[in-house]
Write a structure and sequence with these properties.
Elements: E1 2-7, H1 13-22, E2 27-30, E3 40-44, H2 48-54, E4 60-63, E5 82-83, H3 90-106, H4 109-117, E6 134-137, H5 141-151, E7 157-161, E8 170-174, H6 179-184, E9 188-191, H7 205-210, E10 215-219, H8 228-237, E11 240-245, E12 265-267, H9 277-292
Parallel strand pairs: 1-2, 1-3, 3-4, 4-5, 6-7, 6-9, 7-8, 9-10, 10-11, 11-12
This protein binds NADP nicotinamide-adenine-dinucleotide phosphate.
The site of NADP nicotinamide-adenine-dinucleotide phosphate has 29 residues, from helix 5 and strand 7.
Amino acid sequence: MKITFCCDDTWPDPWLKGLRETLPGAEVSIWEPGAPQADYALVWAPPQQFIDEQAAGLKAMFNIGAGVDALLPLTIPAALPVYRLEDAGMSVQMAEYVCQAVIRFFRGLDAYEADMARGVWQHQRNPRRAEYPVGVMGLGKMGARVAQALTVFDYTVNGWSRSPRELDGVTCFSGMEQLDDFLASTRILVNLLPLHAETENIINARTLGLLQSGAYVINVGRGGHVVDADLIAQIESGHVSGAMLDVFREEPLPAGHPFWTQEKIILTPHTSARTLARDSIAQIVGKVAALSRGESVTGRVDLGRGY
Ligand code: NAP
């Protein structure tokens, strides 16, 4: 079995080592133009040339991330099954990150940090939990885990997905027809949608305006979900009180971008849920084995739908 690795911006050594250890009989190599045909591919943001040279002979292609937006601009034969990572150790990281952001906003920890740095000992008004309903956009592997983690702290939790979902302790909304009701029920907005044509720019002046006053935005989906200038304007107007952003239209976030200097925005460098090589390899190798036995596996991407 031949496995090719074509992952932009990814340190290949742990992947090659892990694949070779887990599949000792396999030939594992880094793709380069003109490389021999492989049976399976691990990809992250591959170039079109990779698809043109390899796709026809591949049995399956595995995206080494949960989001497949980097594949959507490519021309990929419909017959080639594409799989994405399903959780693979990421949802617990996402739950940690989002819970800390929600707690930071709810408890006013930024204000306390600023006070303590100035030597000021004072208490903020006691926040009322009921005044901070959280809304999670996207209730898939990441969003469902995050929503349920938030219920542990007794927050009011809303969720929004494309098709109707049921989650214990979460008020679920679905479809464009319920988007406005979901937003109006939400003060802290968490974005965990996949980026595709229907969700691009979904966090904009109109949708931010529907959030409850004193809103917060936590974006851990993709930068393309947010209209940057609209978020800045809503913060400047006071309707949005702050944001914690992990993902950006351009990464690294360019020098001079207004997010760098807006003091009500906290930034992290796309680190809310890192891909874990060991967990991901175990999942992918398990799927390769199942596919080789003729079984079907979960996590197949519908490229037409966009996720
Ligand atoms: P997933 O399991 O495919 O879940 C996607 C969710 O979004 C589903 O609930 C889906 O609705 C919903 N959705 C998709 N299109 C929609 C639309 N047009 N309207 C309303 N809801 C829509 O994906 P996942 O594994 O949870 O990952 C979600 C995203 O998180 C990824 O695509 C990626 O962009 C981001 N992510 C970021 C990081 C990071 O480090 N920042 C790490 C991992 C993932 P249905 O349930 O009806 O299908």
